[in-house]
Amino acid sequence: VQLVESGGGLVQPGGSLRLSCTASGFTFRSYFMTWVRQAPGKELECVSGINSSGGIIRYADSLKGRFSISRDNAKNTLYLQMNNLKHEDTAVYYCQQGAMGSRGQGTLVTVSS
Prior knowledge:
- The chain is built from no helices and ten strands.
- A hairpin with a 4-residue loop joins strand 7 and strand 8.
- The N and C termini lie far apart (37 Å).
- The relative contact order is 0.33.
- It has strands at 2-6, 9-11, 17-24, 33-38, 44-50, 57-59, 67-72, 77-82, 91-97, 107-111.
- The protein is mostly beta strands.
C-alpha cells in the first residue's frame, strides 16, 4: 500500500487549498478512504471519509461547509478541497485507507498571516 499526499503549503486565513492523495498497491476503488489530520501537540483527528463509490460522505461537524472530500477512482486519487481556512486548520494532513488502515507520509498545511 502506498499513499502519497500533496498540495499542502502556507496559506493566509480565509484562503483555500486542494489536497491530493495518489494511491497504489491496492484496489483503490474498493476502499472507503479517509482524510485525517494532526495539529501540533494534538491527537489525530478524523476530517472526512468517503465510501468506495463516493456516495456516502462524512465530515467532522466543525468542518462542514468548508471542506469537501471527493475521489476519482479512474485516477486512484483522493481529494480534499479546503475553503475559508482558519488558523486552527494548521496540521499535517494524511490520507488513510479505510477507517484505521495505512496512511501516507502527510502534507503540511499552515494557515498564517
